[in-house]
Amino acid sequence: MAAAPIYLDHQATTPCDPAVVEAMAPLWSDGFANPSSRSHRPGLEAAAQLTLARERLARCLAVPADAVVFTSGATEANNLAIKGLCEARLTRGRHIVTVATEHRAVLDPCRYLQSLGFELTVLPVQPDGLLDLHALAAALRPDTVLVSVMAANNEIGVLQPIADISALCRPQGIAVHVDGAQLVGHQRLEPLAMGIDLLSLSGHKFYGPKGVGALLVAPGVELKPQLHGGGQEGGLRSGSVPLPLAVGLAEALERALADAPQRAERLAGLRDRLWQGLQPLEGVVLNGCLDQRLAHNLNVSVDGVDGARLHSALRRRLALSGGSACSSSSGEPSHVLLALGRSRQQAAASVRFGLGRANTAEQVDQALAWFTEQVQALR
Ligand SMILES: Cc1ncc(COP(=O)(O)O)c(C=O)c1O
């Protein structure tokens, strides 16, 4: 049997930490009761566990516990934030601002609102992937209700200047939503101190379970629910909360933050080793700036090779991707790379290396050797 490929796709998803699996385990069987069942002891015990998970999660992000709305992940959190905020502020205006390099889970809800009559401004980015704050300032209008900008990009790892963005928007009464799916759990983040009104996060991006995430709603920010039903989560997200997943989310975030500084330092070392090791190949272009970037991300375009053939050769030994896992099935070149000014051909011949906890220097060297051999053969 062929050896398992080296997993370098940690921005698509991370393995669930075994300690997190263990923390969730009793809640699938013995502690199975519905936290909304207040008429018996098992239900009350489940409710107490849910309160604890909410408090633990809130503590990690320095927000009050009632700011946490559990969701099925960042896609749902983004939808609730964007549609819920715009619906709540209809009397103020109907203009939304976002950025060309956002995840589809932000761009598509914004486009959906556009189809309903909202005006949408999608700001371009600079060649290094960073938002131009002057362009943002110029785009804001009296009827702007929401600015949605991601903390860290899922394809190129670029970190946007969120505190500066909020400093521009907040004094004008414009709400700031941040898709934090790729940053939460990798760096300590205090959304309220940074002036963030709404923050989305997702468990499976920081060694937690899949199918759970949260939207953090700053005190005083009003949203209209997008799921109607039993009124769970303060009426903002109806549906029985999956207690094991909520506990897993809190456990994973505590654990991910506990080793985040050391992990980032080690993975930045591996990332730089990878980048240095690619230099002899020539014609390998970095996508996104190197300094304002997640430690565990490297994204490059390779000149002189066909993208489809490159990826088909790489996948024999490596598990990595050209961009977002959510859009890789469409066959379209990455909208993020096109927004940086890459050609369709360059965007197709691009590779995202997403490093994670279990990767070693030896694996990086093996990946480099395979990558180099395949590129040389194709050229
Ligand atoms: C930046 C970003 N936003 C949103 C999502 C969607 O997250 P989820 O899978 O939790 O719905 C992802 C995951 O691919 C992401 O990277």
* Count of strand segments: 12
Spatial extent as radius of gyration: 21 Å
Strand content range: 5-15%
Helix/sheet category: alpha/beta
Strand numbers in spatial order across the main sheet: 2-8-7-6-5-3-4
Oligomer: single chain
In whole angstroms, the N-to-C terminal distance is 29 Å
Task: Please give a structural write-up.
With 379 residues, this protein is of the alpha/beta class. The protein has a domain at 6-15 and 259-378: Aspartate Aminotransferase, domain 1, CATH 3.90.1150.10. Helices cover 38% and strands 14% of the residues. The protein has twelve helices and twelve strands. The strands form three sheets. It has a seven-stranded mixed sheet, with helices on both faces. β3 (95-99), α4 (104-115) and β4 form a beta-alpha-beta unit. α9 (307-314) crosses α12 (361-378). The longest helix is centred in the first third of the chain and has 20 residues, at 41-60. The chain is globular and about 65 Å long. The two termini are 29 Å apart. The model has no long low-confidence stretch (mean pLDDT 96). The protein binds pyridoxal-5'-phosphate. Pyridoxal-5'-phosphate binds at residues 73-75, 103, 105, 150, 154, 179, 181-182, 202, 213, 325-326.
Attribute tags:
379 residues, binds pyridoxal-5'-phosphate, 3-stranded antiparallel beta sheet, 14% strand, Aspartate Aminotransferase, domain 1
Q: Summarize this, please?
A:
With 379 residues, the protein is of the alpha/beta class.
Note the topology.
Layout: E1 6-7, H1 18-28, H2 41-60, E2 68-71, H3 74-88, E3 95-99, H4 104-115, E4 119-123, H5 133-139, E5 144-148, H6 162-169, E6 175-179, E7 198-202, E8 213-217, H7 243-258, H8 260-278, E9 284-286, E10 297-302, H9 307-314, E11 318-319, H10 335-339, H11 344-348, E12 350-354, H12 361-378
